[in-house]
Design brief:
about 100 residues, mainly alpha, elongated
């Protein structure tokens, strides 16, 4: 007779939540290998037609979406801003 492995059925998120609500230990269902994803907030930004053309051209060159280009450029600008502030703080501390 063949031996078969019994597969452990993983409970749904709803049943895990109900177990937690009853005060049961649900830590065995969490591996801590996941990544925390922060909530996304949507914003509206107005661009001129020429800026949109430039963004679309950059997106086509990079083979990504316009949104990806905007996010990358904003991230780059914020990084530069933080570096500039840090360097000015260092300069002011030396004066």
């Amino acid at each position: 007779m063949k031996q078969t492995r019994e597969s452990k059925k993983v409970p749904s998120a709803e049943s895990i939540a109900r177990m937690a609500d009853r005060g049961e230990d649900v830590s065995r269902f969490f591996t801590n290998r996941g990544k925390m994803v922060r909530p996304i907030q949507r914003v509206n930004v107005d661009f001129t037609a020429s800026m949109l053309q430039e963004l679309d051209q950059a997106a086509a060159e990079l083979n990504v979406s316009r949104q990806a280009v905007i996010k990358a450029f904003v991230r780059q600008a914020l990084d530069q801003h933080h570096l500039a502030r840090a360097s000015w703080a260092w300069v002011r501390s030396k004066v």
